[in-house]
Design brief:
Length: 138
């Protein structure tokens, strides 16, 4: 059987009844925290590129390392969930600040690199997500 001869049921992509409600909640939290980190990292890169208030370098690298170690050392519980999310957002912000010089260099070379990289990454992430949801074996 050829893989291209197979009929694709696109309605199956929108049905998640085979996933338990607890798994659905977990996936929702994972994707929400991923989106939050992406926006906060973009804000950190924007802050670096526009204001140069927080210069990337040793300070942002040490800050992000300290926040990641603090996040790993904080036990996971319902009471510490907001604290852990704040630590993750701080790590993402400082990571975005650390990407500022690389983004400035990319813009100096060719400004179309950034939107192309963003769209390519978004398309790959979408394809992997859809393939994971559509797969028969999990």
């Amino acid at each position: 059987m050829n893989i291209f001869d197979r009929k694709i049921n696109f309605d199956a992509l929108l049905k998640f009844s085979h996933i338990t409600p607890s798994t659905q909640q977990h996936l929702k939290k994972v994707y929400a925290s991923f989106a939050l980190c992406m926006f906060v990292a973009a804000a950190g890169a924007y802050v670096h590129m526009v204001t140069h208030f927080i210069q990337a370098g040793l300070l942002s690298a040490l800050g992000s390392l300290i926040l990641m170690i603090w996040l790993m050392a904080t036990p996971h519980s319902h009471e510490t969930e907001q604290k852990r999310l704040g630590l993750l957002a701080g790590f993402a912000f400082l990571t975005g600040v650390g990407l500022g010089p690389a983004l400035e260099f990319c813009i100096a070379v060719n400004p179309s690199i950034l939107p192309t990289a963003f769209m390519g990454t978004a398309m790959i992430f979408t394809c992997f997500t859809l393939s994971a949801l559509y797969a028969r074996r999990r």
